[in-house]
Write a structure and sequence with these properties.
Strand 7, helix 7 and strand 8 form a beta-alpha-beta unit. The radius of gyration is 19 Å and the shape is globular. Helix content is 34%, strand content 25%. The strands form 2 sheets. It has a 6-stranded mixed sheet, with helices on both faces. Strands 2-1-4-5 form a 4-stranded antiparallel sheet, with helices on one face. The chain is α/β, with parallel strands linked by helices. The protein is built from 10 helices and 10 strands. The N terminus is likely disordered.
């Protein structure tokens, strides 16, 4: 997918979990990203804001190569995740997606039990390499559910269908499903957009719980959520990054007029 210059001359630095350098992307003839330079620091929560269609989700989907599902997509530039050029010839897409988990706008639990949802990826990756005892599976299951603050709510319903959970619980479950394969980066595309205020608060609490153990990049249209639930914030407009800084500073004293106009609701 990427053109030949994707890994030329851009060494990755250790401070960032994700780095893009000069990233351009086209959907057919339409250019969606323009020279995107982004550095997402390890172990913190970075939010991305901007009007619909500005390229936020495109950046997210490029970082674990989901974008490749569309055969008419073309990129130039570099994307480094955990120090590796993810478009390099020696990089396996399975390993990229193992290290970089993705959470979507609406929960997408598999139509199987809570237990089997959480263990799905673990069994896929581990069972083909070695025999896994039931006791180990139980430990992995409980650990993942505790990390997303869901264990107490579902510990007596582990063998019931996951589709019977509330939307908030389903979204937490989808995040728990990523954790047993030990990703280092979690990409979240408006993870609270389908939730009510109570569910949103619960998921935000869970995201803060994961902070530090994981690098989290979250797309949101909710200005209050971006301000509450991130350490740094990126403002995008028309396929370009306009501003990137500490969240509180960006909201209180933005450097660019476009940023101020957006967060104050004058457009978007």
């Amino acid at each position: 997918m990427a053109d030949g210059e994707s890994s030329v001359g851009y060494p990755s630095t250790g401070a960032f979990a994700i780095e893009t350098r000069g990233l351009n992307l086209w959907y057919g003839d339409f250019q969606a990203l323009f020279d995107v330079d982004l550095g997402v620091k390890k172990g913190i929560i970075t939010s991305m804001i901007g009007p619909s269609g500005c390229g936020k989700t495109t950046v997210l989907r490029t970082c674990n190569r989901i974008i490749e599902r569309l055969g008419y997509v073309r990129t130039t530039g570099s994307v480094y995740v955990l120090g590796h050029d993810i478009f390099g010839d020696d990089v396996e897409i399975v390993q990229v997606r193992k290290q970089v988990g993705m959470v979507f706008q609406r929960p997408n639990p598999l139509p199987i039990s809570v237990r089997d949802n959480v263990l799905f990826g673990f069994r896929l990756h581990e069972a083909r390499l070695r025999k896994v005892a039931r006791a180990e599976e139980d430990e992995v299951l409980e650990s993942a559910l505790r990390q997303v603050l869901l264990w107490d709510a579902v510990k007596d319903r582990l063998d019931r269908p996951a589709t019977g959970l509330s939307l908030e619980e389903q979204q937490k479950l989808c995040i728990a499903r990523l954790l047993p394969v030990k990703p280092e980066v979690l990409l979240m595309d408006e993870p609270c957009s389908a939730l009510d205020p109570a569910g949103t608060e619960a998921v935000e609490e869970m995201i803060w719980q994961l902070r530090g153990d994981y690098t989290i990049l979250i797309v949101t249209h909710n200005m209050a959520q971006a301000r509450r639930a991130s350490d740094e914030c990126v403002f995008m407009l028309l396929g370009r990054i306009v501003e990137h800084g500490r969240t509180e500073e960006l909201f209180l004293a933005p450097e660019h007029t476009e940023t101020a106009d957006y967060i104050e609701g004058r457009y978007g």
